[in-house]
Structure formats: structure tokens, C-alpha cells
Fold:
Amino acid sequence: MNSSLATTISIFFITALMQNCQAANSSSRASKQTLKTEQLRVEPEFWWADMVNPTLELMLHGDNIASMQASLQTLTNINIIEQSRSENPNYLFIKLSLKDAKAQTITFSLTKDNTQMHRFDYQIKQRRAASSQRQGFDNSDVIYLITPDRFVNGDTSNDNHSSMLEKVNRADKDGRHGGDIQGIINSLDYLQELGVTQLWVNPLLENNQQQYSYHGYSTTDHYKIDPRFGSNADYRQLSDAAKDRGIGIIKDIIVNHIGSNHWWMKDIPSQTWINGLASAQAMDTSNLPFTTHRRTTVQDPYSAPSDLSNFVNGWFVDSMPDLNQTDEKLATYLIQNSIWWVEYANLSGIREDTYSYADKAFLAQWSKAIMAEYPKFNIVGEEWTSNPITVSYWQRGKVNQDGYVSHLPSLMDFPLYETMLKAFNSPESWDKGFIELYEMMANDVVYADPTNLVLFEGNHDTNRLFSLLDNNLSRFKMAMAYTLTSNRIPQVFYGTEVLMESPVEGRHDGAVRADFPGGWSSDTSNAITQLGLNSQQLDAQHFVRKLLNFRRHSSAIHNGKLVHYVPKNGIYVYFRANKTETVMVVMNKNHEQTTLDSARFKTQLKDFSTATDVVTGQSQNILNNLKIPANSVLVLSLK
Structure:
């Protein structure tokens, strides 16, 4: 069986055809059985032995399957614990105990009125060695975010697919352009040389929507890679090839909603599966509840219950049905699906979209289940707010006033990102500029584990960094240096290293997610070969590559303590240091070279005499003073 397909198992459907003994010429015919092919969907397609949670629940979908009884036809220590049904007669849920089970193939039989109706094999696989102890992304990593449709087109033969509704149209900024998994594989050497150690790829699962399918956030099949990106096997090949280069894969997962063309929407599993929609026949977009996006209602001690419901249970748009994770069968399905992809594709992390929009009890259950299977794993959630308190609520280890216990290790640091932009764009004053960044860091006291947050310079939903900084290369370098040397896990958006641009006011998704230079054979510039790049792009790419590769081997940046000094006279200084290494970062907004008095920083500098610029390799004596070029940032290795 091709594992690249969501499990659709062709089985034999045995029907007893009784001939009417009163019909003409039928008296001599005995009753007999004939065989015909029927489609039965089983998810997950397969599972693994020796998982921490020994329970597995299969979801079966087929015509009137709920009226049938399941049994195991093979001698095995696997047991059927429970068979359950919903209001929909076309679904059957089989809960199994895999405790102490070894890798094997088991055979199920489904019977009705003592007649076998279906028979199918199900595989329990052997896990990779030490799979449960896989190391998730951490502070030693640099995450590189890719929107796959817009990165590199490595296989033009899959640009269109006969079963997919939307066709490629590179002239449409909101349409599909043809980037794919093979394009990412072809670019791995470039990414390795750049200094990338983790790839977060926007969703790759099937999105069979009429339009806007390129972004991937409207899943129509949870177990199938979109064929315009490749296959399940291609995704595993990407993971293997990346791992060979020291690069991990972070999967973008959405548990809050699906696409309106998801196969469930043709035959909804239960009346409680989709918020605001009891059945496919009841679909009426005019009466759908839409989310208010008022995310603080989840943790606000004073919020009205109706406001909370309107946020959590509302749809994003009418093409994204909102999932009801309080449905126990759906909750189990989503948890198992996430674990299935970690195990199948050998992932090193998950990025969870629109985190707070799902039911918060489920989110705790979901994150706890994944971290129980993979204790060293990492999951980063998206909580888009400028308020650190709102973000901190969701992090594992936070003691919340309402008693909510989260198991989510990491979150995107939107508050620090937004402050960083203001700090580098604002003229220096008493309360503007670097001081905004300095004071935002004091909010780390509200986080359970601030160093496990992910700081980004931009992503697929934000306008491009270089544009937001007024196309000022000096500010760009400051922002990149801060992102890569702060006490966070850094994330870089594809193309930032070559100064990709966008409008700066409002949302411009198609422009923000523009094609990576050189990703198509007809491109006139190429970020990978540097063909056609201008001097600023080459400068920026060199700067980013130098910092990333320095960072890769810098234990001080990976785990060193952060000490920063109050900004003065347009200068911001901070140190990252552990027992074996000290790194000094100096940012200068002044329009002229500035001499820095080393005496102010004597506590950190007392054991050193030389500072070497990690980008240029130039060194200077720091016993007395340190010269800082105008409008610049220095990342200095102290000796």
C-alpha cells in the first residue's frame, strides 16, 4: 500500500444475493455469494508499537458501517477495548489496547447479522530507535520559515493535479505558483551553508479549495500531503535529507479549523464535530458564527461566558469550518494525527497555528499527550498579541490564577517582535528607541521560561522586515543581530537574507509571500547562486550568513546569561556569557563613529583585552575604549 495516501483501503464487500425462487428459470439456482470492491477509509492508516500511550482509536468511514461489529481475526495480544458510534451511520470508532504489543499486522473483520461484510489488514510498525527521545528545536537552533508554494519549484510536473481544484497561476499574487517539496530538497545545501538548523514549513497537507489554497491553512485531508507539493514519501525524503545536513523539520499544524472542502464536510462524523453546524445538509453560511478574535476572553477573570464562546466557537471565514475539540472523538483524532506525523516524518518540532482559538482544555490535553510521547520535543504556539501576560498564560510551567495548567513549551514572541520594530525605527529619546526594547525585556518575569520563546524578524503574516525598517540596511542589520543573539530561539523568514520587500501598511499576504528569487528557472535574480543580486542584497546575505554560522557554534548564545545595560546616547550594549565564552553586542544609532568607555562595562570586560567582530574578523583592543562605527551593530567575541 502506498503510505502517501490517506488510508483508503480497498476491501471485499461480501453480499449474499438470494435468488427469488418464484422468478422465471430460478428454480435450479442455489443462493450464492459474489464479491465486489467497496471503499473503506481507516484512519490512522497505521500505528506503532511501544508508544507511551498504549491506546489507539481507529476511525472507520464507510456506507452504514455503524451497524457492523468489529473483531480481530488474528491471534494477538492486541485487544479491542470499545466500539462506539455517532449519530452518523457511516462511522465506526474502534478503540484498541496495544499494551505490550509488538510490531505486527492484524486482521479485522466487520460483520452484520453473522455475515462478514468487510475484512482488512492493519499494520503496527516498529518505531525508530530512540524515537521517544528525539531532541526538539531549542536555543542552539535557527529556524527558517518557508512558504512552500513560493519558495522553489523543483518539480514542474506537479504544478497542477487532476483531482485538485485550483490550478497554477504565477501571475496571480494570491494564486498557486508551483513551489514544492522537491524545491526545498534541492535548496538544502544552500540552507545548510546559510547556517539554518531547523525548517518550519507552512502547511503541506492537502488543501483542495477553489482559491487561496497555496497557503495551506485550509486542510482537506489530515493524512495526505497535497499532491501539488509532492507525496507523503516526498515529505519523509525531505526530513531524511535535511537530517543528513543537521537540519530538523518543524511541522505547521492546525487543530482549530479545516477547509470547507475537507472530506468530512460531505459527511460530518457527528452533530458536535463542527461548531455551528450539525450536518453537511445544514450548511448555511449566512447563519454561521464567526469568531470575534477577542483572545483575552480565554483568561480574563471578568469576561462574560458568551464573549468566550463567541471567540472560541466562531469560524474564521466561511471557507474554514471551526472544529469543536470538546467532541471526544475529534479530540482523540487530532491528538493521534499530530503524533502520527511526528513519528512518520521524524519531526523535531510542531508549530501550532492560532493556538488560543481552540478549546483550552483540549489544548492542554493535546500538548500533554505529545510531550508525554516525546519528552525532549518542542512545540511553539501562535498567540498573536503585543501583551506578554496574554502570551505567558499558555506556556508550560506558568502558575495561572484560574488554575489552568498548560503543557505547551514555547510560544511566538509577538510582544518582543513588535517592540523590536518600534525600537529600531524610533529616534532616540527618554522613552523611545532602544529603551523600549530594554524595558520590554523586563516583562520576562511573567514567563515561566522566556528563553524558550521564539523571536522572529517576520513571518508569513507580517510585512517584510526591510520594508518595515524604511529600507534602511543599518537598521536591518541591528534587527537581525538582535533576533539572532537575544536569549530566544530565533526564526528567520525565507528571503529576508536577500532583503525581500512588501508594502508596509495593512495586510498584503500575496506580496509578503512573494516568490523566492531564483526559485523558478525564468527568474532574473537568484538568491542561491547570487546571480542578479544588488550590492545591498549581497551585503545583507553575507551579514546573515556570518551571524548564523557564528551562532551555530556559540555556546554563549545558546545558553549564556543575558546582561544588558540601560541605553545611553544612542548606544545599546548587552552581553551573552557562560563559563567558556562571552559575546558582546553593541548597537549605535548615531550618525557618527562613537567611542565607548569600557569602564562602564568592566564587570563583563575585566577578563578580556580583545574584541573580534564576528562578521568582519577585525579585532580591537578594549582595555580603555571601544570604537563603534556610525549607524552600526557589532557582534564581538571577547578574548
Observations:
- The chain is about 20% helix and 25% strand.
